[in-house]
Structures are given as structure tokens and as C-alpha cells.
Amino acid sequence: MTAGGLILKQLELGPMMNFVYIVGCEQTRQAAAVDPAWDVKAILATARQLDLHLHHILLTHAHPDHINGLEELLDATDATVYVNAEELVYMREMAPRYQVPIGFLDRRAQNFRAVVDNEEIHIGAIPVRVLHTPGHTPGSQCFLAGKHLLAGDTLFIDACGRVDLPGSDPAKMWWSLNRRLRALDDDLVLYPGHSYGGRSSTLGDQKRTNPYMQFGSADQFVRAMGMGM
């Protein structure tokens, strides 16, 4: 897909139906891989087919199924990794629990850049806005590129990410869904982190049909998720 100089490619990879995205700039041919996992060779091959050069890696969050290709892709590209500041801490805390080797975090420390809410990343001439949307993890974030919302595991089509995992917070997920994302324009196209309910939707449709975006208070949301207050 190419629109207004922005190139967007969606790849479904791995046994957990993950979506990996390539966001590119038609003018400069610079590109970013979003949540590189499962098949780095396929990610690199797709970038070559699109005549794009991966200078950036964007992480929506740091669960293993979204970053298990990160070290390999870094070794292949020497790209800059953009991750929420809170998520960097979370990566180190959760590594023993998830049995994820993170030695490359120190070896590649110069490649990592901590970002904060509303920061703007430039992929060539394409501005990408960072939206901190905690709940699934402390540093979960979405990326807004033009009219494209790359939502990771915050918002799926007619569903949302789990809030019963270590580091999850259902009250914060309520805020992310029912305040932060609900305030965005209806005509944004949602691209989720997994192919659980489809490949894309509009945010307006999700505001109308997604049951997790219908709660007026955090208390209601938390109780509906079966977690009490």
C-alpha cells in the first residue's frame, strides 16, 4: 500500500498469527520494521522487494512473540530501535520469566532510543507519532503514520490485548482504549498486532462494535474483565 508517499506492508508471520509491518518512505526509500519476529529472512526479503532500506525498528511492546527477531534484525541492519522508556525497564524485569536472552540489550545499547508519548519519529520524510497506550504492558505504544494506526496488542479487531499477564494493568487498558484511542479520528485505519479478528478495520467501526471500547469507567472495565478492584 502506498499513500501520500507512505508505503505500508503487512506480513503475517509465526504460529501466533503475528503481524509484522514495514513502514517506508517512497521518497527516501528509508523504512522501519514494526515488531520484528519469527521470520527475519522474510522481513528482509520483503524490504528488498519493495526497494526499502531498514534504518529503524519500532516496538509496540516487548513480549517475546513480538521481538524474537529483534537481535537478528539488528545484526543484519544496525537499525535504531524505538521503544517506550518504561518498556525498556520491563524487558529486563521480564526476561527471566519469559526465558528471553537479552544480552544484546547491552551489546547493542547504542542502537536503542527510549521514546515518550507524543514524540515524533521520522521514517525518511514520513512522520510517525508515538502514542503511549499502557495496559497490556507498562510501555505498550501505538504508532500513528498518516491515517494508519499500528496498535500492537493494545487494540485488536473487536478485541483487545490480555490484561492478566505480568505487568498488565486493566485500569490502564481501559484508559488507553476508552479515552486515548477513542479520542482519535474515526477514519483512521487500524492495523492490529495479531490476525485474531481480521487484517484491518477503521477506528470508527471499532468504536461502534468493539465491546472493550464501550465502557464508561475503569471500574466497569476491570469488573467485566473478572479482576475486581
List keywords for this structure.
alpha/beta, Metallo-beta-lactamase, Chain A, six-stranded mixed β-sheet
Question: What features would you describe in this structure?
Answer:
The chain is α/β, with parallel strands linked by helices. The protein has one domain: 4-Layer Sandwich (Metallo-beta-lactamase, Chain A). It is built from eight helices and 15 strands. The strands form three sheets. The chain has a seven-stranded mixed β-sheet with strand order 1-2-3-4-5-6-7. A six-stranded mixed β-sheet has the order 8-9-10-11-14-15. It has a two-stranded antiparallel sheet with strand order 12-13. α6 packs across α8. The longest helix has 14 residues. The termini are far apart.
The figure for the number of domains is 1
CATH topology: the name is Metallo-beta-lactamase, Chain A
Note the gap between the termini: 44 Å
CATH superfamily: Ribonuclease Z/Hydroxyacylglutathione hydrolase-like
What strand line-up does the widest sheet have?
1-2-3-4-5-6-7
Structural class: alpha/beta
Q: Give me the number of helical elements.
A: 8
| Average pLDDT over all residues | 94
Architecture in CATH? Answer: 4-Layer Sandwich
Backbone shape: globular
Reading the helices and strands in chain order gives: EEEEHEHHEHHEEEEEEEHEEHH
Taking all Cα atoms into account, the compactness measure Rg is 17 Å
Largest sheet: 7 strands, mixed
Beta-strand fraction estimate:
25-35%
The CATH class assignment is Alpha Beta
Low-confidence stretches: none
Helix content: 25-40%
Annotation, overall tally of beta strands: 15
